[in-house]
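TA notes, week 10

Several of you asked for a full example with nothing omitted. So below is the full record: structure tokens for the whole chain, then the designed sequence directly under it. When grading your own attempts, check the secondary structure regions first.
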């Protein structure tokens, strides 16, 4: 199976496993992920993010494979226009 088909059919659970391995160097069950496995996992999660995820992260990978960054203003605007509830703390 080629990379494009694999990423198009990859489940969110598989994405999470690969992301965990790339970030921590271990698979979710605790076994060690080798250096090459980490590198491949990183490539796959970047491809998955580009294909499937809409993200509010500062840095993402677009569907054409380019790195997308947001300015501080763009981030503030996206948070201001979001319907998601955010916990706010005030001084007592």
């Amino acid at each position: 199976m080629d990379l494009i088909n694999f990423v198009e059919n990859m489940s969110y659970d598989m994405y999470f496993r690969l992301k965990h391995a790339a970030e921590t160097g271990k698979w979710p069950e605790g076994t060690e992920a080798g250096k090459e496995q980490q590198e491949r996992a990183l490539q796959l999660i970047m491809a998955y993010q580009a294909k499937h995820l809409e993200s509010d992260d500062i840095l993402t990978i677009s569907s054409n494979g380019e790195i997308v960054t947001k300015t501080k203003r763009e981030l503030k605007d996206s948070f201001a226009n979001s319907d998601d509830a955010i916990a706010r703390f005030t001084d007592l």
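Residues 85-89 have pLDDT under 50 and may be disordered. Use that as a sanity check on your answer.
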